[in-house]
Amino acid sequence: MRRGGILNRHLAGALAELGHGDRVLVCDAGMPIPDGPRVVDLAFRAGTPSFAEVLDGLLAELVVEGGTAAAEVREANPAAGALIEDSLPEVELVPHERLKELSAGARLVVRTGEARPYANVLLRCGVFF
């Protein structure tokens, strides 16, 4: 058993398979999950684990070039909006409907227990060199 890092074996395995340019949707409990991508559902109960906890853990494990989030996050969920913009090197804001369309191209979906609106981001993986 690992001492630290991500202990969920499904998530650890899925992260190990990602490559440059792959997209990872980190979403709240209410985001529609598209058909196709691998899904790791971490939701335990409303709010657990939080979007912030999951995003922080993923950013510790992945090289991320940037991300895409819903423009509505700034007004509807300022805490999540600030977290996304402060955590990523580059953020594109698009209408929420467009984010849902783009999420169909994700290679991996990580569902959190977050129960606040628009706590969703589509991460774009980079390379470590």
Explain how this protein is built.
The chain is α/β, with parallel strands linked by helices and 129 residues long. The chain is built from 5 helices and 6 strands, in the order αββαβααβαββ. The protein has a 6-stranded mixed beta sheet with strand order 2-5-1-6-3-4. The protein is globular, with a radius of gyration of 13 Å. The protein starts with 8 loop residues before the first helix and ends with a strand. The model has no long low-confidence stretch (mean pLDDT 94).
Which descriptors would you attach to this protein?
5 helices, about 20% strand, globular, about 130 residues, six-stranded mixed sheet, alpha/beta, about 30% helix, 6 strands
Number of helices: 5
Order of H and E elements: HEEHEHHEHEE
If strands are numbered along the chain, what order do they take across the biggest sheet? 2-5-1-6-3-4
Total beta strand runs: 6
Q: Provide the gyration radius in Å.
A: 13 Å
Average pLDDT, rounded to a whole number, is 94
Beta fraction = 15-25%
Give the N-terminus to C-terminus distance in angstroms: 28 Å
Low-confidence stretches: none
Largest sheet: 6 strands, mixed
Anisotropy-based shape: globular
Structural class: alpha/beta
Question: What percent of residues adopt helix (DSSP H or I)?
Answer: 25-40%
